[in-house]
Amino acid sequence: MTQAQRARIDFPSRIGVWWASETWSMPDAQEVAREIEALGFGSLFLPEVTGKECLTQSAAFLAATQRLVVGTGIANIHVRVPSAAETGARTLTALYPGRFVLGLGVSHGPLVERGLGGVYQKPLATMREYLDRMAAVPEQIEPGVGRPPRLLAALGPKMIELSGTHADGAHPYLVTPEQTRVTRDILGPEKWIVSEQAVAIGSTDDDQLRRAHAHLDVYSGLPNYRNSWLRQGFDESDLVRGGSDRLARGVVGMGSVDSAAKAVTAHLEAGADHVVLQVLGDNPMADPRPALRELAGALGLN
Question: Where is the Luciferase-like domain (predicted)?
Fold first, then answer.
């Protein structure tokens, strides 16, 4: 499948970065984005939980860089109405053709109901209706731009299927390379797959495991991820708070820099078009640059 036959995303390289910068001042975060680009990474994907609004952040990162693709990983559909998501994405696409990706997700019941005061209903039906309403936005909004590239945070088979029929592909998160392969098998060759891979490098094995378990702590309490891991071959004994050591080693690249780099490229070998690596530091918004400088060399980016 050629680039012209699918939604346009002009990744400068096949490996990017996933980074939460919500506690950073935007000028400082823009400096990080510029170095990510200079190191040879092809993208910067950012989350949206209950902090900063992700489309505004995306605009700032796009303005600060020259070729870096910026994606939302993910924009929470409970934060904005469908027309706002569509028109905001069209505006960024009009200004930065080929450089913006709208990743969308249904989030999680506890986050939506406690954090946002919303109502969490059937995820698949909710997402399908949301996408249909986005598609109904008239063409005279940013005429000629067309539908911006959009990916779904898809873990289960039905949501993966929806990412192929109603979107341009999937953004799997906290999955093994084998799950990336399953996603490719469901979607076929025509759709984008941008897989996330967390990595913990440096220090001792115990410290790397500590960071991996801390990273998994919140996710291990969310049904969507628990069900996803069970489908991926883990079992109930792995679903303790923070995950078992087996789960941590299965979804987080650890060991040497080269070992962590191999965990990233394994998703490419399994069928991903692009992989975004997430550096695990002492907190979710730690500066990723020291690790990225090492990983860029191991990944052959510079």
Answer: 20-237
Q: How many domains does the chain have?
A: 1
The answer to whether residue 71 sits within a structural domain is yes
Question: How far apart, in whole angstroms, are the C-alpha atoms of residue 108 and residue 91?
Answer: 28
Measured CA to CA, the distance from residue 142 to residue 148 in angstroms comes to 11
DSSP state of 11: -
> Averaged over 115-139, what is the pLDDT?
87
- Helical H runs in the chain? 26-38, 54-64, 82-95, 109-110, 123-135, 157-165, 177-187, 205-219, 223-231, 245-251, 257-269, 289-298
Domain with 227, as residue range(s), is: 3-297
Q: What angle do CA 188, 193, 198 make, to 5 degrees?
A: 140
- Greatest Cα pair distance in the chain: 56
For residue 252, being part of any structural domain is answered with yes
Instruction: Look up the CATH number of the domain holding residue 39.
Output: 3.20.20.30
pLDDT tops 70 at residue 244: yes
Over residues 79-98, the mean pLDDT reads: 97
176: number of CA atoms within 13 Å, CB side?
A: 15
Residue 228: other Cβ atoms inside 10 A: 21
pTM: 0.95
In a domain, 302, yes or no: no
- Return the higher-pLDDT residue of 247 and 117: 247
- Pick 79 or 32 by higher pLDDT: 32
- Does residue 15 have a cis peptide bond before it, meaning omega lies within 30 degrees of 0? no
First and final C-alpha spacing in the chain:
28
Please report which residue ranges of 96-191 form alpha helices under DSSP H: 109-110, 123-135, 157-165, 177-187
